[in-house]
Amino acid sequence: MGRQLYETEPLFRRTLDECDAILRPLDVPLLDLLYPEAEEPDTGLLDQTLYTQPALFALEYALAELWRSWGIKPDAVMGHSAGEYAAACTAGVFGLEDGLKLIATRGRLMQTRCKTSDMMTLPVGETAALELIAPFAEEVSIAAINGPSSVVISGTHRAMEELAAALVDSDVKARSLSVSHASHSAMMEPMLAEFEQVASSITYAKPRIPLCSNVTGETATERITPTYWVQHVRQPVRFATGIQTLYNQGFETFLEIGPKPALLGMARQCLPAGVGTWLPSLREGQADWR
Questions:
Q1: Inter-residue contact 208 to 95 (CB < 8 Å)
Q2: Per-domain residue ranges for the chain?
Q3: Given this model, what pLDDT does residue 178 score?
Q4: Read out DSSP for 182-198?
Q5: Is CATH 3.40.366.10 the right assignment for the domain spanning 3-114+187-280?
Q6: Average pLDDT in the chain
Q7: What is the model's pTM?
Q8: CA 112, 118, 122 angle in degrees (round to 5)?
């Protein structure tokens, strides 16, 4: 993830080095995870939640800083789930050290306090998804609304297996996601109290750049409180609403900040055909500089 940029772009390297120094006391060896001596990273470690989330935050923040150093400055920012932490840091909601502390705590508590569970995508809208999960309402939640016909659900292994079996004979083609923990669901309840304590220790400021919220789908312009980040762990990601909000405000150029273009395809589905300019930062199998 961004190895060529790390080797060739001084600002990108300095930013990741700074993130590494902040994360080491939090038991996250960032650079060892991203750029080990072996040519290929140990994806087994990077796939662990306690490492995935701070690693993505650091990469996304470093990319945003690199773009800004070239004069590419956002008029608004939005994340998706853990990506909202990097977006909020870019918007000045909290400083880099506080942001890394918060996201590292989120990943650690999610992995150590919450039971393993499942997530699945459904090619339906929110209303239809609610009807499908109604028989399992105590164990299955909507985790994200990514488009008009794209919903992610989260829940216990048992309930998700039963739901998947019930969908086999229907026209709904569900797809399981390769995850260990069902974020944005009731499965996160065991971590919330301790996470709120850490969130309450962070210093927050009013966004310097408009931040489109995952929780509401609307632009946040006032100071975001610790309670918001607790809600963010538990409530569904309203990505589709956020894209529509930005479009209604006149935004038509979207630059994805991440290791690959995972969100652009979903975002396109939220707007009329032919609308928007959709730009990735990095692509797998393609030189970073390009």
A1: no
A2: 3-114+187-280, 118-179
A3: 83
A4: --SSGGGHHHHHHHHHH
A5: yes
A6: 94
A7: 0.94
A8: 145
